Amino acid sequence: MRNMKISLEKSLREVEARYALQMEQLNGILLHLESELAQTRAEGQRQAQEYEALLNIKVKLEAEIATYRRLLEDGRDLSLSDALNSSNSMQTIQKTTTRWIVDGKVVSETNDTKVLRH
């Protein structure tokens, strides 16, 4: 009985040691994954800010193109002062596109444009 008890205690210590080692390995993996998640979130946030900046530039360029197109469609001769005066006026335009997607396909899309500031 005593030998059996000693053998079982030894076996228990071995199992506990293996369990502790596995827990340490899993904790290491968990820390690594948490670090990757934090990096991925930071990268996503950086990309969202970059996208927002690019979108703002796009909206400004579209407004400028629309101004030049309007000036060309008016049919009048453009002078340097006209170009300078039109470039000094700036508009802030908000464009919103809403898409309803079902099973990966766009089923509805609405566009809304608002002039926020002249």
From TrEMBL:
<feature type="coiled-coil region">
    <location>
        <begin position="23"/>
        <end position="71"/>
    </location>
</feature>
<dbReference type="InterPro" id="IPR018039">
    <property type="entry name" value="IF_conserved"/>
</dbReference>
<keyword id="KW-0597">Phosphoprotein</keyword>
<keyword id="KW-0175">Coiled coil</keyword>
<comment type="similarity">
    <text>Belongs to the intermediate filament family.</text>
</comment>
<protein>
    <submittedName>
        <fullName>Keratin, type I cytoskeletal 18</fullName>
    </submittedName>
</protein>
<dbReference type="Pfam" id="PF00038">
    <property type="entry name" value="Filament"/>
</dbReference>
<feature type="domain" description="IF rod">
    <location>
        <begin position="1"/>
        <end position="79"/>
    </location>
</feature>
<keyword id="KW-0416">Keratin</keyword>
<keyword id="KW-0403">Intermediate filament</keyword>
<dbReference type="InterPro" id="IPR002957">
    <property type="entry name" value="Keratin_I"/>
</dbReference>
<dbReference type="InterPro" id="IPR039008">
    <property type="entry name" value="IF_rod_dom"/>
</dbReference>
